[in-house]
């Protein structure tokens, strides 16, 4: 090979290599934001802890629905897969949990496989909608012992969230989560930690079995907060590292609490 | 047969059995033997010399027959005798022990009561055996119950003995006759010895040895039928000693019968007069046992007296054996189980969720959430488990059960692993090892001190990819019936419920169950050639060790196919954990309590341990016994020197009913109270169970002592047999045998054969 051709080959390889790695990493995770839902390729259940992200048809009221690319802005897929992949990495490093690193699980409430993942993460519940089957699914999920995290919504999105919640659980109130609740001490001591603001003053809410704050915590609600985004961009300078740290601490407590209570 | 023998051999077989063969030489044997030999050889030689055309074969046959005939005559001339030891008339005593227990009331002796037989043969001067025996012996009569002491005539007496202890009765009678020349003992009984039901009784075998050592032969007469024509009996009832409140009690009832095969009858269980369970059973063929299992609720705390009965049929031989009563202690205490989990996982959450409503279970959880960081749940106070997993025996042994989750062996020190093995073996706790990526063989437990306690073989971890194996879990035959895995009131429904359970996954390669281990659940994966042991347990020392080799039993709760209202997951875990801590000993445990009768000495035993469950010998132990009417008495215990840590006392109750025994042990400054023990005092009914005549027992008495066993039809021979004894005042009698018909017949047969042979050969 002549010297100019060799240089050209090395240069081309050097330019394309990072792209190849990035593509490989993206493909390794079973779905990436903006992709079409047909691209969802969940790995089979194997008993390890797996991040379960809830898929739903986004409401078009506040700009949901089809988006910029072919897959459209589906809302529920915001920050995936980087948010959960980073969280899983953190959990693996910090705790004794050995989560599934290569794939998360993406299902709608009520899908048969969804019941194998008792902690559900709902992103952008301001755009959450449910079919009748999904309503039945979420009721069953909760009644059997499932735990739900609502994250990444703000302002008027609350009304949609509350409306959807009441469709499934008309008698269960979404109420402020007391700062003395054991979830704030499940791993880290978060008694002095505030929920990082995203789009306003962030607040913690919760839903309790029989509306009894001393009873079983069914769901935790991060209002005016976006822990997903803080985790997603923790490897870039896009968000302050301290805020990402807080997000990881909070999510770690959620996970440990939900796996023990 | 015996008559024919006597006809041929002049005497009965018993005389030959007991005598010694010999010869009373009328002339010195040195003279007789050469003459006989010369005659025999001469006869044979004459045949050899015969010129009558005899073949060699003829010479041998005829010579042999003639020689044999001469040998018979010579034997008779030598005057054979049987030297036999015989009791001197009227110089010996014969003890007659008559069974006066309640089973002798059964009317299966030719339509009369068994007890009537003794009256029939010994009741008066003209009774057959009395007459025959009293002609040669002085007779002394005893009763098995001890009533009436020793007497010279049988007399009338009630058949009221609550139990039959034949060996004791014989030993007692022999002691009464100590010093007198005793030729033998006669016992009239049905052989239904129930000494094993007598509290504190010396085992029969041990007493048989004592009887044998005295060398007094026992002549046993068996009265009654060996097989009842028609009878139903509740032969056995098995219940757990203690159950937790709100659990169900598994009652196993064994019903046997004769004459009612195919009949359907209900088995009924009552608690304080309330029917709490009933199940219909079809009686099997004669002699076979029907096993009935019922689950009844344990809703009320304390000692529950359960009556298990089947209806009495109109023509049954024994009516009293259709009912049994047992005591089950329903405990309301909170059993503390330590659950150590090595990583956050859903199994932990769902086990806790499954049993959180159970107020008799406290699952104290220690979760290793990060390296050297623990989350404690359901602890009693801020001190409990503050420094992680217990490091001392005292701390670990304060729990009654331990659950090991997905935590590797290297998490523990070697001493902690030994402590865990001792928790099962010495403390008597229940250990449950769950499956998981860091559990069992995959957790490196092979070769550790704990591996010995586990009920399955552990090999080196099998390298596997990250996947898990899906298995369908089903109960084994043992599992369908087991209190931990029985999900429905009956076996069929239980098996059906298990079949509908969703599959689970496992990441553990479990080896073979150890000998003595029981597999309750097994898993089947696609392509498996043999089932995988999935829920296995074994007794190890005083406790039990259980392995449940799956990682996600919580799918039985969460799986889409499981209806929300389904309770199988909760039921399974509640039952498993309750069974795990059932019968776990406490620091002071009342053991060896049972049943007894009023004014009967009932032995009690208490085991006392220190806080590390080492048996403690230096304690001061006493009990407060509370009678059913509320009377309280104090009962001191003495150290039973045969076993470490055991203390014994004998309680003599004054009334029927369930008595409560509360024991207090004081060792230095360590005072411990036991949980209550219960003793049921009731009129004994053992006489009516297994009440058919048992010849084997009576034969054993006879064989061990050199006596004989007779059925009533053969008993007339006893009077003669008992004379030939080495016991008592005896003389040796030499009985002539030369005139035995058998010898004469043999001589005739030999000479006849010779004559016939000669005739056939044309020589006669």
Please give a handful of descriptors for the protein shown.
heterodimer, A: 261 residues, alpha/beta, Rossmann fold, seven-stranded mixed beta sheet, 7 strands, 34% helix, B: 764 residues, Immunoglobulin-like, six-stranded mixed beta sheet, elongated
Helix content of chain B: 10-25%
Structural class of chain B: alpha/beta
Radius of gyration of chain A: 20 Å
The main pleated sheet of chain A reads as: 7 strands, mixed
Q: And the CATH topology of the largest domain in chain B?
A: Rossmann fold
What does this structure look like?
The complex is a heterodimer of chains A (261) and B (764). Chain A has 261 residues and is of the alpha/beta class. Chain A has two domains: 1-30; 33-260, Domain of unknown function DUF4159 (Rossmann fold), CATH 3.40.50. Chain A has helices at residues 3-28, 82-94, 132-144, 157-168, 227-232, 241-260; strands spanning 52-54, 105-107, 119-123, 147-153, 174-176, 203-208, 217-223. In chain A, α2 (82-94) links the parallel β1 (52-54) and β2 (105-107). Chain A is globular and about 40 Å long. Residues 8-27 and 66-70 of chain A have low confidence and may be disordered. Chain B has 18 helices and 36 strands. By secondary structure, chain B is α/β, with parallel strands linked by helices. The model of chain B has no long low-confidence stretch (mean pLDDT 88). In chain B, the strands form seven sheets. Chain B has a ten-stranded mixed beta sheet with strand order 17-16-15-18-19-24-23-22-20-21, with helices on both faces. In chain B, strands 26, 28, 29, 32, 33 and 34 form a six-stranded mixed beta sheet that branches. Chain B folds into five domains: 2-86 and 733-760, no CATH class; 90-223 and 692-728, von Willebrand factor, type A domain (Rossmann fold, 3-Layer(aba) Sandwich), CATH 3.40.50; 231-328, Immunoglobulin-like; 335-467 and 507-522 and 533-580, 3-Layer(aba) Sandwich (Rossmann fold), CATH 3.40.50.880; 588-686, Immunoglobulins (Immunoglobulin-like), CATH 2.60.40.10. The two termini of chain B are 38 Å apart. Chain B is 24% helix and 30% strand. The interface between A and B is medium-sized, with 31 and 35 residues.
